[in-house]
Design goal:
By secondary structure, the chain is an alpha+beta fold. Helices cover 34% and strands 16% of the residues. It is built from 7 helices and 12 strands. The longest helix has 21 residues.
Amino acid sequence: MRSPTQRDLQVDDIAAIVRDGLGAALTGAAELSGGGFATVWRASLTDGRDVVVKVGPPPRARLLGYERGLVAAEAAYFRLVGERAPVPAVLAERDDWLITTFLPGRTLTEVTDPAEADPVRSQLGAAVARIHEITGPRFGYTGDRPSGADWPTAFAAMIDDLRADAAAWDVPLPRLGALDTAALAEVRRPALLHFDLWDGNVLASGDRLTGLVDGERHLYGDPLLDLVSPALFRRIEDEPDHPFLRGYPVDLNDAARHRLTLYRIHLYLLMVAEGPSRGLPVGSDRHAHLTRLLTEEIDRL
């Protein structure tokens, strides 16, 4: 099912974007699956290149607060990390679309053999460690989205923004109360974070990492936040042999575990709040599952 944030495009629409951005013509194009926010197509050009065309939501689509300007944010992310990880190169962009190079490989969701997947996860950890060396100008998001002069302030703003989104969409939430964020004060440097490192955004060819995509949700903050999505719906601190941690060695002490719990609360809160904007109603099995996960992490905290 197509999300309300995804445009219903045809080959002629993609051809017009490619002509505008690259001055090129198509030999063919096909929509890619896997995402639920933007519309993504692979386009083959008459000069022999394959490119990816990513088109943002329609102008009247209702979005979450932090989702403003995500097309530009993705282009910025790729430019920032281009020499540190295999990400697409930006070829052309406008306010509502982006054209990038096409990266080889298939997503990790399609790689079922641990002999191939585990080395890729380790390489991902090492690549993310390199990306985390980049320091941002402030904590939180860019632009006029939630941010702060320190990490506790930025994180609180992000949580409050999602609570406001849930209220605006009439999405019921478990009682959050006042979150204990004192441990976040240990974070003194705003590292560049991808945030959305689930298997669908990681490309592999055999046992080799070939791509890291969908950087539009990037922000600046605690590097530990990027340890949540590679072990989506699990607790990576309880899996010391997780292959990501072989590439990203880190001391997961009690303070780190507390911070990871906060970051899972943030992720599950986001996923609960965004449901209606993706056409997934309150009361669905997905909503119930995510609410249960969110409640478990609040109790754990």
